From TrEMBL:
GO molecular function terms listed in the Swiss-Prot or TrEMBL record: phosphorelay sensor kinase activity
Residue ranges annotated for the Signal transduction histidine kinase internal region domain, each copy included: 159-238
A GO cellular-component term linked to this record: membrane
Protein name in the entry: Histidine kinase
Pfam families noted in UniProt: His_kinase (PF06580)
Sequence intervals crossing the membrane: 7-28, 40-63, 75-103, 123-140
Keyword vocabulary terms for this entry: Kinase, Membrane, Transferase, Transmembrane, Transmembrane helix
PANTHER family (alphabetical): SENSOR HISTIDINE KINASE YPDA
Keyword Cell membrane: no
UniProt KW Calcium keyword: no
Amino acid sequence: MKLKIPFYYHVVLFLGLFLTYLLWEYGINDKAKIVQHTRLYLWITSTFFLSVFIVYLINFYTFCDWFLHKKKIHFYFLSIPFSLLIFAGARYVIQEVIVYHIIGIHNYDVRDLEWGYYIRDNFFFGLPAVIFSALSYLFWQSQYSQKQNQELLLENKKAEFQMLKAQVSPHFLFNTLNSFYSQLIVKDDKMAADVLVLSDLLRYVITETDKDEAILSKEIQFIQNYIHLQKKRFEDQLFLDFTVQGEYSNEKILSSALIHFVENVFKHGKFNNEAEKAIISIQIKDTFLEISTFNYFIEGENYSSTGIGFDNLIKRLEYTYKGQFVLEKTEENNTFKTYLKIPLKK
């Protein structure tokens, strides 16, 4: 996710640096006469800082966001010459074209405006802008990550609290279901099997979903049990294609990530028309997993907003997988599609 840093932070930062530099030159370096009597000095200094500011912003919002954000350090180092070329070009246009047009004086000697020398010389002056931009980006990224982690911990604490509220004597609940199962196994095998599935479903919700990671085989078994009970609820009027492709066993994924998409289909989808089947597809490859869903929904329903659960899922995905996941959702013609691709942990 891109850093959401207010633009005025950068403006205030550079104004502060500019004023500090002027005070330094005026006081400590004893250039008071130059500052007071030479407007060229102010023109050159201010436009130099403007050039630095331009490259700082370009580097911050493009190269840093493209490469540092995704930990592609070697690509970022390869981008530095491009940033320095931008600095040289920006400084040339501002000082040697615009300022020269205003005051009639070049900053560089005319003999030094040859492109080769000018670019080499400004590589040295532009490098601090690139380094400062990268350091600033890393600082804000660390602050954002820390804030994100705190928010995620708070969300997890809220979820744990809700879970504790829901866990009213779970052992009593399981014992009751097992008692029902023991009585029904003699009279109605199918009903007994459904009670057993419900018991496994509740046990998984209470004991596994509060963990950070889940074993893939257990997560898929939970989904299969969930769909099994939904079929009972719809009394054979559930038009749904559910498929799992690929081999899996003890791989680990983010807990409840897949369940969210399945629950969303059942919460909003239409299932009573065979021509408008819902689809849930899970594909397991060597190093990653993909889940895609498709369903029709009732016309007029606001499906584009998936609520707090979806926002929380995005935060958990960003925290766990950083930039190594793909999440998409599409709404059109009363249909809703979702797609998630995440890496598998062996």
